[in-house]
Every structure is written in structure tokens, then in C-alpha cells.
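for the recovery benchmark. C-alpha cells below, seq after
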């Protein structure tokens, strides 16, 4: 994953603005063509079903350019053109452009208890998925072997159209897009996984932090569509992950390690975290604390975690002043069951007026969130340059 991609939530075409600067005539024309192709394919990918008229409106390109770009993308097998639904049309019907789900990516999520693999079509449709459980925490090699077996079972003989694989890891990933610097729950440290996994799978592999890719999935396809200042917190068996979108840019930090909200220290807590530090938020808001609890005991523990979660959200809200907070995984269940406790803690502990008009909602993509987010890693190069330069 390149720094350009990870910094931006805007489409790849928007992230590459120097395309017209001081280019000679022929090179400039080719750069414009590639930029326009990227713009149109990205709009179709994120829109999933877009009329040609809406493409003209949304991209700012004229009708003839849209027609030319769609023709090139269709010839390349990246989009299809269909007649509009008569009952949905007002005035002169406009052809509908759809992404071709024959163009696919693998999405892989290794965790402490299982590895999950999905096949995702262009346009963000999960076409197939499977998982393999682990009896103990897997090594990178174990996870790769299991992922390769699952991929083979899902894809079979239909490997054509696969553009690559995206791997969403619960840990810190370096800006080189291939090295897991520290995944505390997995015990992976300084593991360069992109190259060996690529050799095993037979395709390019791109690696990203699971919370970062989940946030981008929600921004493109889910609860945060249209938002530019968003906080995301997710709870899983690997603890709490987090990510922040600030002014439309993913906040990554100097080396891509920003957003580790689960490792904020909670006042008055002495429990040791898997990261080796004392009192991290995820030691207190933790799905393992709910294991085996039923009835009143489970309700009481969930309520306690809701208050602590609200305090954690208040801390990051004071730092980032978002318009929206999205929570996923078991944190979404806590919010649903104890919304008043979460909101009460946020209002009490956030510096006024930073909590005003901020919506706190659950992620909309459910179990598909990491599959869609990891697939975006693999689709990124294609969206940035859909059709190679003409020779």
C-alpha cells in the first residue's frame, strides 16, 4: 500500500493531481487519458450502478469524454453498459454503467483464531467467502498456507480476472505496504509478508491495518459515505482497532501507525495489555471479559464496558473534533445495548462544544467490512491506472 493511497480517501485519480504539470504534448495527452479513465472507473466502482448522465454530472467531464472513456473501459472488460430501467427513468433514458464483477480481488484477514478469505468483485460485492479456524495463534507462514488453501477452494479454475490480494492485519503495518511491524495479539513483529504471500498466492499482495481499511470501506460503501471527518473504533478478538479520517485524509502518522486507540491508557487501571503496557483501553473493553457471562452478570459487565468505551470515544473526539463516530465489531453491540451510557460518558467527558452535533453510529457493512476494505488494497492500483498506456 503506497503512502498516496493510505493518506487519501478520495479516489486514486483525485490523489494524483500533478498529472498536467509541465508535461510535453504527447505525454500530457496520455496522462489526461489515464486520469480520466481512473476518474470514470472509480466513480463506477464506488457508485456500483451509475447512469452515463450522472457520470457526466459527478466527474465534471463532458459527454463525449465520458462516452470515450466508457468505451475503453468496456473494451477492457472493466465495466458493462446496460439499458436503463424504464420505470426509473424521467425524460430521455441514459445508459447505466456497472462494474464488471468478473474483475475480482482476494481479501484476507488473519486473526488469532482464524483466517478469513473472500472473493470480492469490482464494485464491492462479496462473491464468495470461507474461513479456517486455528487451534493456536498462527504464524505468518501458517496463516499464508491456510489462506492459499481457502483461496484455491473459492476460486478453483476461475483464477482469471483476479487483480491481486489485500491483507487486513490487526496490527501496525509499515508504509512499504508489506511489513507487519507489530501485531501484538498475533505475536508478529517485523514480518515482511507481502512478498512470500505473493509468491504463494501467485498474485500481487498488499497489506494494510485492519481498522484503516475498515474505515475506508465504511466511507466508500457504508455508514460514513459523504463524511470527511470520521473516527472509527472496532472491537474483535484481537482487541480494539481505530482509525481517523481528517479532512478527507486517512490519518496515518509518520510511519503509518496512527489510530491505535485501543492502546490509550485508562486512568486507574492496572491490567497488563498484550502489547506489554499497563492499563490500555482494550484491557477494559474486551470481548473476552464477556465470555461465559450470562443474565445479570453479562448485562452489568456490558454496561461497565459501555461507560469505559464512552470515555475512550470522548478522548479521541477531543483530539480530532469529528462529525461522525462509527463503531464496529462487538463495540457496535455495546452501543446498541447501552447507547445511553455511551452517549452519557461522551457528553460528560468531552470538552464542550466538541460533542455537539456528533453522531455515534454502528458500522453499516457488518461482516463484510474487512472483506471490502482489504479488497480496496488490491483494487487500488487498477483504479489508479485502469488501462495501460498505449504504445
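predicted aa per position
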Amino acid at each position: 500500500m503506497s503512502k498516496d493511497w493510505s493518506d487519501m480517501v478520495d479516489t486514486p485519480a483525485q490523489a494524483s493531481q500533478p498529472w498536467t504539470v509541465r508535461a510535453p504534448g504527447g505525454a500530457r495527452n496520455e496522462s489526461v487519458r489515464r486520469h480520466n479513465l481512473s476518474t470514470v472507473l472509480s466513480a463506477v466502482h464506488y457508485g456500483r450502478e451509475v447512469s452515463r448522465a450522472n457520470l457526466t454530472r459527478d466527474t465534471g467531464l463532458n459527454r463525449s469524454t465520458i462516452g470515450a472513456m466508457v468505451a475503453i473501459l468496456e473494451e477492457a472488460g472493466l465495466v458493462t453498459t446496460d439499458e436503463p430501467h424504464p420505470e426509473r427513468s424521467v425524460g430521455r433514458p441514459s445508459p447505466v454503467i456497472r462494474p464488471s464483477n468478473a474483475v475480482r480481488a482476494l481479501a484476507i484477514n488473519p486473526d488469532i483464531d482464524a483466517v478469513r478469505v473472500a472473493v470480492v468483485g469490482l464494485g464491492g460485492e462479496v462473491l464468495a467467502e470461507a474461513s479456517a479456524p486455528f487451534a493456536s495463534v498462527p504464524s505468518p507462514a501458517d496463516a499464508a498456507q491456510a489462506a492459499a488453501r481457502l483461496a484455491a477452494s473459492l476460486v478453483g479454475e476461475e483464477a482469471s480476472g483476479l487483480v491481486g490480494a489485500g491483507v487486513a492485519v490487526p496490527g501496525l503495518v509499515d508504509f512499504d505496504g508489506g511489513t507487519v511491524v507489530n501485531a501484538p495479539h498475533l505475536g508478529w513483529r517485523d514480518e515482511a509478508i507481502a512478498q512470500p504471500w505473493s509468491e504463494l498466492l501467485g498474485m500481487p499482495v498488499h497489506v494494510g491495518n485492519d481498522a484503516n481499511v475498515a474505515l475506508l470501506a465504511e466511507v466508500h460503501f457504508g455508514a460514513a459515505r459523504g463524511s470527511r471527518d470520521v473516527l472509527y473504533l472496532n472491537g474483535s478478538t484481537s482487541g480494539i482497532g481505530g482509525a481517523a479520517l481528517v479532512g478527507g485524509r486517512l490519518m496515518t502518522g509518520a510511519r503509518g501507525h496512527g489510530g491505535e486507540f485501543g492502546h490509550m491508557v485508562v486512568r486507574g487501571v492496572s491490567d497488563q495489555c498484550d502489547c506489554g503496557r499497563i492499563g490500555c483501553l482494550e484491557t477494559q473493553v474486551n470481548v473476552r471479559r464477556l465470555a461465559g457471562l450470562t443474565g445479570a452478570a453479562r448485562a452489568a459487565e456490558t454496561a461497565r464496558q459501555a461507560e469505559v468505551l464512552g470515555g475512550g470515544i470522548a478522548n479521541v473526539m477531543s483530539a480530532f473534533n469529528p462529525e461522525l463516530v462509527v463503531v464496529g465489531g462487538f463495540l457496535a453491540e455495546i452501543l446498541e445495548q447501552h447507547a445511553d451510557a455511551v452517549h452519557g460518558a461522551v457528553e460528560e467527558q468531552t470538552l464542550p462544544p466538541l460533542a455537539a452535533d456528533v453522531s455515534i453510529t454502528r458500522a453499516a457493512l457488518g461482516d463484510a467490512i474487512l472483506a471490502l476494505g482489504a479488497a480496496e488494497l488490491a483494487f487500488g492500483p487498477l483504479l489508479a491506472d485502469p488501462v495501460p498506456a498505449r504504445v
